[in-house]
Amino acid sequence: MLQKMLRSPFIPLLGYLLIIGFFLISLLVSQNHQSLVWLSLLTLTAFSLIWVSLISWNNRKHPENKLNAWSLIPPEFREMDEGQQWITFKACRNVYIFYSFALPLIAGLCFAFSDIKFMPLLLIGALGTGQYIVYWMTIKKLNRL
Predict the structure, then answer these.
(1) Chain mean position to CA 141
(2) Using CA atoms, how far apart are residues 85 and 89, in angstroms rounded to an integer?
(3) Tens digit of pLDDT for each residue in 12-53?
């Protein structure tokens, strides 16, 4: 169960959303509400520590199937055999196709709403969230086949 949870694309998505949320809150709050920024930073730090602790615990429990918290390769890539490599290839291909449509749209929205200072950050957050959703939906669909 822990291995499946740590390899889920939702954990990095949650971390990504926490980072975007932290930046948005720090942009939007006034000097009077700095406690909200510190609370966001504390939540992000706690999430990171829990993530690293769970990976460390998993690696002690399953030394034959270790995860690296600091690797550049996302933990949701399970390339144990050719079948998993093919599924990862198809999911990454779908994310690439998603970006080919989403990036021009996001760029246009950034120009259209350039007077709103947090809009680029919000759109980058939507772009990253869309990436994780496309990846997860493809993995889920292909694992059923």
Answers:
(1) 19
(2) 6
(3) 778 888 888 877 777 777 666 677 778 877 888 898 898 889
